[in-house]
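User: Could you check the structure of this?
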Amino acid sequence: MTIASVILAAGLGKRMHSTLPKTLHPLLGKPIVFHALDAVLPFADLPPVLITGFGSELVQEGVAKEYGSRVQFAFQAEQLGTGHAVRSAEELLRGNADVLLVTFGDMPMLREETISQLLELHQQSRNTITMTSVMGDLSRGFGRVVRSSEGKVMAIVEEAVATPEQLKIREYNISAYCFDAEWAWQNLAHLKPSPKGEFYLTDLVEMAISQGRDVDAMVLEDPSEGLGINNRVDLADCERELRARVNRQWMLAGVSFINPETTTVELGVSIGTDTILYPNTHLRGNTTIGEHCVIGPDTSLQSTIVGDHTVIQYSVAEKAVIGSFVSMGPFCHLRCGAVLKDYVHLGNFGEVKDSTLGEHTKMGHFSYVGNAIVGRDVNIGAGTVTCNFDGKTKHLTEIGDETFIGSDTMLVAPLKIGKRAKTGAGAVVTHDVPDDTLVVGVPAKPKERKDQCE
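Assistant: Sure, the predicted structure tokens are below.
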């Protein structure tokens, strides 16, 4: 059977109190609507149709940048209810599919596995409508699923128009549906407006029952899949539930979380086995962590690659590459383009930007290295600064293998320090230093070594 998908995302989102369309607000590293799209894309035989309204240009631009031609769009000029929204996709989809899958762009918690089960039930039962529901005590504004004494679905009653008796029902419609496609298109045209002038998709349930057709509701085991987002409180609730879901998956895969409630791992992150994440650690973007690492506490890594057996504490890294057996922190900052090779030690209050530190190099504390290539087995003393910016241009500093940079050395780029060279404490180096040379002073000049005089 051919499956078409419609995702409703045209709402005004007034309760978010934001100029950003609701479905573009980030949730664990991805816009809300991306979660909804990812859940249905594996099953749609046609590109899913995203119904947009408020902020349509921004939503379409953001989705198209990520998904390209895998998603198509329809515009709902007036927000006249969910039934009216689905009709916006009729021209694109009618006659091209047997099953119409309808979900919502502000319901990001539905799993891919749940969509698969819903489609399987719908196809096996040959229902006209197969929907999803959850049992619980908090309604969150969802419609009530009304069943007969035999347990058959008879109707969905929206909370706004439910009677006091109906409000006692604890089975809620969470707005994911499979329809017999042609039946849905035919009957959407006959929906009657509510007292508010809106056309409710849920009224199709009662219409199908009145026609003697079969309707079924699949009750989800995990009520969190029914969470929708109307305001920022709902957004925080979804973030908490999704974070717990992701963290649990990593723990079952061999990663230790000392305090999972305070640890954030976004969906694009990869973590190796036997790695330990301490409290207040945040792994974001496309971060990749190797095996047997210790990350945190109070550490944030954004799209950063980390090797194996590396320890990072109380530090921040953004678009950096960190090798294996590295020790880093506390209070380090790696900025974009920073590369720490294997066995590097970066101590407290060290900052590296757009630079490479070679194997076994040590930068103990209170130093800044920017736009530099540092060799292996280099010692960078406390207070060292690469003076890489002259006010107009950033210049390169090159430091050879086995070099010793004394405390409070100022390296004024462009500059090349030779292998096994040394700088004295407080030196201001403005000219290249040959191999095996000691320079001291302001400006730094070569000084004859004692061993050369003996």
